[in-house]
Fold this sequence. Notes:
- The strands form 3 sheets. The protein has a 6-stranded antiparallel sheet, covered by helices on one side. Strands 5-6-7-8-9 form a 5-stranded antiparallel sheet. A two-stranded antiparallel sheet has the order 3-4.
- It is built from 5 helices and 13 strands.
- With 237 residues, the protein is mainly beta.
- Helix content is 15%, strand content 41%.
Amino acid sequence: MEMMSLKEELAGNSYPGRGIVIGKSADGRYAVTAYFIMGRSENSRNRVFVEDGEGIRTQAFDPSKLTDPSLIIYAPVRVLGNKTIVTNGDQTDTIYELMDKQQTFEQALRTREFEPDAPNYTPRISGILHIESGKFNYAMSILKSNHGNPESCNRYTFAYENPAQGEAHFIHTYMGDGNPLPSFEGEPKLVGIDGDIDSFTNLLWENLNEENKVSLFVRYIDIETGAYETRIVNKNL
């Protein structure tokens, strides 16, 4: 698979929706993950990321303008031991709870499907990072309708063992703007990853569409020690 420029992928798509990036820093020291949200409606744009324990949650920026919390208020990131879970919905909790009961990432997601937001049927995208004894691997998943048919759920899981330095994978909910919104297609995109946490955060935030971007989370986890640094950027301050 040809490596793509993450900067160009973001700058060239006005509405990728919600996106997850997971990979290894160029120096090989860190497991890296990022999650962003975008919005077209006032309800979707009325959000911020806030820290919640070792993870984060979404929160209404102006509670008086919150009309429907069902698909926009959730915990995108939770930590279960040496595993970091990143998703675009409340399936974060499903993965956390079922993996805590010794089920696998894939088994947990078998209990869920795409979002019930007709006519878009937004895909549920999920990722998990596993760091143990100085080793790092990760997996990504997408649950999507069968070409817009809500009677059929297509499930895809992609696993990456011992990822190469400076490589990451990027998955997002939509191919671009539209009505209905076209679901992501194909494998997660192979993208390059470079720089420290601040330069990577800036690259992501600066290249997300100015009108539609809402919030961004970035975390660098030291593969040897498990210690991590986090950055959160919210358009609503």
